[in-house]
Structures are given as structure tokens and as C-alpha cells.
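Dataset card, provenance and construction

Sequences and ligand SMILES were collected as paired inputs. For each pair, a complete structure of the chain with the small molecule in place was predicted and serialized as C-alpha cells. The example below shows a pair involving zinc ion. Curators did not alter the output after generation; any descriptive sentences attached to a record were derived from the structure itself.
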Amino acid sequence: MLTSPPDLALQGLAHVGETPLLCAACGSGYALRIYKRGPREPFPASVSCLGCGHWEDCSPVLTNGMVDAALEARTGRKVAADIDTFVAEWRGRIFQGELVAEFIPDDAVVMLKALHGEVSKDARRWWGGKKRAVRTRAKETTGAVKAAAKEKAGDAAGAAKSAALAADWALRTGGAGPDTAPKKPRSRCTVKGCRGGMVTLSTKVHSTTGKTSEVKIPCGVCHRRKPV
Ligand SMILES: [Zn+2]
Ligand SMILES: [Zn+2]
């Protein structure tokens, strides 16, 4: 019985006459499910309480006929803002209340609208955060660049030195310019023991003392020997 959908899913308090319909066990009337029982109208309906789990097999106030009357009288919902209410009369008894909203297409529309609103709000928040981060980073970068520029301007000697190096390089490369040229001296030489164009050898041959000593000779492969 509990596994089948109820005939009436009450939303909030329903009333029979002036009396609120309440769970016989816990006294709450806010989560009641009504089931028709048996074939005849005057038979008592069953009431299930979702609050406490109590199952009232034979309601003292509700009959199958009242459930049917309620189903017939229910307003239903057309748009999302509607509520599903009923005021039913059965053999002189007034049964009224509200039913749990059943899903209608307009609910989807409203939900999607709300969802869309939330999504774009989130997106705005997300972008806002990103923009802030970018602004902060830009500020930091600008600051760093400014600081570097200041440092450079202050270090006139360093600037002169690099200018001199550039000029030197230009001289040696026939004016290839410092833009592409500085890469070349940085490239590693494949000759073992070559450091900056000088190869260090351990040798007895060149030693004046006859003992093993280290001799530096210009590298014949890379010719990176520093000008003396
Ligand atoms: Zn209960
Ligand atoms: Zn070399």
C-alpha cells in the first residue's frame, strides 16, 4: 500500500469542517498522504504520515468519497505560481486543503529562468574574480617593470657596460647586432672540457717540470676564446 502513489498528497494542513486533519500518532498534519481503500464511497480512507511513519488504516474522518470529491474539486495548476487547492463537499462534510504541487511544464520554464539567472550571476562573479586577479597581476607586473627601469636608470655603469658589450659584439660579428648575436656565445661547445673557448688538458708533454699539469688551450671547435 505504501509503495503505490497516494491519491492525495496534502500540502500543509487540510481541514474537515473546522477540524484540522492530523496524524493520530504524532499529531502533525503537515505531511499526510491519503489512500483510498476498498470499492465503496463511505469506506474509510487510509492516512499515512510521512512525519512519523504512522499508517492509519481506517481514518475516522476521511472516506473514499471525500477523496474522490477532493480530486474532482482540485484546482490544479496552470502556471508555476499556482497552488493546487481543493474545497470538496461530500455528504454534508467539507474537506478542504492544498495538494503537493505536481510538476507542470511552467515549473520547468520558471526553474530554467531561475537557473539561468543563477548561472549568469555565478558567471559574473567568476569573471569578476578573474578580472580582479588580472588587474592585480597587471599592477604587479607594471610595478616590477617600473622598479626594473628605475634600477637600470640608477645603474648607469651597468648600462654603459652592456652598451660596451653590445658594441664589442657588433664589432666582432660585423654589425649583426646584439639582438640575435648574444645567443651564439651561450650555446654549449661539444668539446669535452671546453669552458668558454678554452680547453683544459691534463698533460705531461707541455709540463716544464715533467709532472702532470693542466694546460689551457684555445678550443679549435668553437673558437670562443675570450679576447685578451
Ligand atoms: Zn505522524
Ligand atoms: Zn669549444
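Derived descriptions for this record:
The mean pLDDT is 81.
The longest strand covers residues 8-16.
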